[in-house]
């Protein structure tokens, strides 16, 4: 079976819109459809039996597939060139006003023969894609005054994932078939492939979410000391809303006029000291789900 791959652009996504199937007028066509045990839907990993909508991202098809990949948004910060940065990502939001959760990828395995591996690779460095100064060229000027074709990048910036866990977002499957999750913190280098989770034999059958981080409510229910999610307030102790935080967040269907910003300590972006040009940077990540015995 071919690998199932999804390309994720941090800060922005490439969407694949599906068209509705319509029968042509005047043609006697009969159609019937069947769906697998796990329909093409995404659920909240902390409350898997409740309907939810985490916004649209790319997905794959088939009995072994990826239903959802996480976005990673980071707020703007003031440029200070003589310091390192450690930025915390936004949590996973939902379009129906649910409480935020950790960022997650959801997969499904409906095959008779099971076993799979889920990996993640950062294909490119964070590169300047939207310059705040429209008159500024997105190129470097060399000491000799020539224009370099090299674009501005956050050199050495690394994304890290921690507090990973598996959510059994399907019914009727015991914990004995829980996939193996990477227990150490994943600190990503550009071009290197990292295995996030794997399953062998009957393990990993069904629908699963692999999650980075969890809410305070989930932590208390499961015996953890505290969650990784933190609500954000301004200097007057008023909730900071998405409308004043992330540009174009409404593109994902979240209620940015009501949703309070939450940070997820389980997803970090570390940027070493360097000269940084103002603007929005993005990087390309690839999730790969591979059939494995």
Topology readout:
Elements: E1 4-9, E2 64-68, E3 85-90, E4 103-109, E5 116-122, E6 126-131, E7 140-141, E8 147-148, E9 153-154, E10 158-161, E11 164-167, E12 180-181, E13 186-187, E14 193-199, E15 206-212, H1 216-221, E16 229-231, E17 262-271, E18 279-282, E19 284-291
What does this entry look like structurally?
The strands form 5 sheets. A 5-stranded antiparallel β-sheet has the order 1-19-5-14-12, with no helix packed on it. The protein contains 1 helix and 19 strands. The chain starts with a strand and ends with a strand. β7 and β8 form a beta hairpin. The model is unreliable at 8-36, 134-143 and 145-149 (pLDDT under 50). It has one domain (4-12, 40-131, 150-291). The chain is mostly beta strands and 293 residues long. Residues 1-23 form the signal peptide. Residues 47-60 have a biased composition (Basic and acidic residues). Pfam families: WxL (PF13731). Residues 40-60 are annotated as: Disordered. This is WxL domain surface cell wall-binding.
